[in-house]
Amino acid sequence: MDAVVDQFSRNTLMSIAEACAAAIACARTVSRGESVRLVESAGRILAETFVACMASPPFTQSAMDGYALVAASGMSEGTRLKIVDRVPAGRSGRRLSAGEAARIFTGAPMPEGADAVVMQEHVERDDTSIVLTRRMTAGDNVRHQGEDIEPLEPLLKPGIRLDPRHVAMLAAQGEETVAVRSRLRIAVFSTGDELQDVGAMLRGAAVYDSNRPMLLSLIGQAGHDAIDGGRAADSRSEIAERLQMLSERSDLVISTGGASVGEEDHSLAALRHAGGSGRVLKIALKPAKPAIVGRIGPAAYLGLPGNPVASLVSWLILGQAMVGALQGRLHRPHIGYPLPIAAGFARRPGRTEFVPARLVSNKGQEVRAEIIGKGGAAQLRPLALADGLAEIAAECEDLRPGDLIRFHPFSGAFQG
Ligand SMILES: Nc1nc2c(c(=O)[nH]1)N[C@H]1C(S)=C(S)[C@@H](COP(=O)(O)OP(=O)(O)OC[C@H]3O[C@@H](n4cnc5c(N)ncnc54)[C@H](O)[C@@H]3O)O[C@H]1N2
Ligand code: MOO
């Protein structure tokens, strides 16, 4: 959807794609790199194209426990073969001729001359010979050298985030170390006179600062160096000072709060006061309508809205887009997957909405997304109970049970 009009303020709102493009435009690729041990590389960003240095499998081998044989143009059921050798994995056997078989195990190299393996379940055997109970064809139960990977094939592109699958493939190639990008340094500070740090006594109209611990955890979990930038009061000069100090040792500085339009919202003014530049985004997104993107010194800057759920959604959409750009990766928006919702949900069209939802399945029937809560930007309980976020398209009016949303799970298979 292109720009829409905010029903309350009559302001023009930009699309999520436009907001991501604006965020990405503020991020320059960080090229610092280092070499790490393969076993410590999961979660890191690959710095260079990885080209296969050897074939996988490295030699032609048996895919089953059974008997290697020479099937040539085909061998019929009932054929008797003499057992002349035994080839366990890790050893090599002798050459086979027609009429001969070698006892062989999964992963053992195929003897020269052999071209098929019959599974042990498909033979009748005595002490010295086997009789086939199945017809055999050349190639049966054989893994050929290089059938998975050929030498010199480009296997991994720079910019990908390595995970245990890549670690396995690189290990199979014999790589002991990997060239990766240095971890991004991402600083987070919060703004707001009403905020109090956990551990301190809560007095008067104060609330605990929950965004900064959440964001530092998200950043740490994503494998970056999370820098705790503390808290700044609602004062232009204090925020400006904090921005300047953190920008000198970070690739990205994030603030939460003060991103909106009230006179107590100082983040943009502070950014400019500190010598940076930026702009307020008003996005057709709920929660997380306001955000600020910009630059200060060598660092990119992202000002997240203060409402806790808004701050999370803004990080997931704009923050991750910026991180991808800092890492030199192509932007791939989260696509989620379509699921029917379990119950109706009342809403006003206009902004794409993200609401906490959990997965439910009715006695092994279809999986549905059950929206939890009413979509408040400040409510942490539904968020904590959810399995992910349900994305409701901007143009949707009230949803009925069974209507489709897109579901974005909080955790993937490799995040535990
Ligand atoms: N007149 C308008 N008012 C507001 C608009 C608007 O368009 N026009 N937008 C609303 C939306 S949407 C959001 S989101 C918020 C964004 O506000 P700010 O980024 O300026 O955030 P604050 O005003 O500082 O705080 C909002 C809310 O969040 C609490 N908060 C802030 N920081 C934290 C933290 N670190 N941990 C926990 N809670 C935090 C804060 O106490 C407020 O309750 O503006 C709306 N207003
Ligand atoms: O968009 Mo605000 O982010 O609704 O809470």
Can you walk me through this structure?
It is a single chain. By secondary structure, the protein is α+β, with helices and mostly antiparallel strands. The chain has four domains: 4-32 and 182-326, Molybdenum Cofactor Biosythetic Enzyme, Chain A; 38-55 and 151-181, Molybdopterin biosynthesis moea protein, domain 2; 61-143, Molybdopterin biosynthesis moeA protein, domain 3 (Beta Complex); 337-415, MoeA, C-terminal, domain IV (Beta-clip, Beta Barrel), CATH 2.40.340.10. The chain has seven helices and 28 strands. It has helices spanning 16-24, 164-172, 211-221, 236-247, 267-273, 308-326, 380-385, and strands at 4-5, 12-13, 33-37, 50-51, 61-62, 66-69, 80-87, 100-104, 116-119, 123-125, 129-132, 142-143, 154-156, 177-181, 185-191, 195-196, 207-208, 225-232, 252-256, 277-282, 285-286, 290-296, 299-304, 337-340, 352-361, 367-371, 388-392, 404-409. The strands form eight sheets. Strands 9-6-8-7-11-10 form a six-stranded mixed beta sheet, with no helix packed on it. Strand 1 (4-5) and strand 2 (12-13) form a beta hairpin. It binds ligand LQZAQKY5 and molybdate ion (MOO).
